[in-house]
Amino acid sequence: xxxxxxxxxxxxxxxxxxxxxxxxxxxxxxxxxxxxxxxxxxxxxxxxxxxxxxxxxxxxxxxxxxxxxxxxxxxxxxxxxxxxxxxxxxxxxxxxxxxxxxxxxxxxxxx
Length: 111
Hints:
Blueprint: H1 9-36, H2 40-72, H3 78-110
């Protein structure tokens, strides 16, 4: 691994801790903005910023996991570990998309 690409468990832990802190902060502020701001444009802009921020954080953390995990597996199990990670990632995307479709369908039926 090149020296400029330093990935460690500490980097991953810091990323996860940052995401947890961000979730708490966003939850507090989003609740405040949602209930006390009448302007829907401001709430929409804040929602878009939150989604963009979380997408970058999730992409960064998943890249760290994919880069770090094979180095933790035994030599003969690295291929299987990579396959399991890919299966889990693909399954998560599929289930998230399916859940999104079900929620959207139910929201459309409610209106």
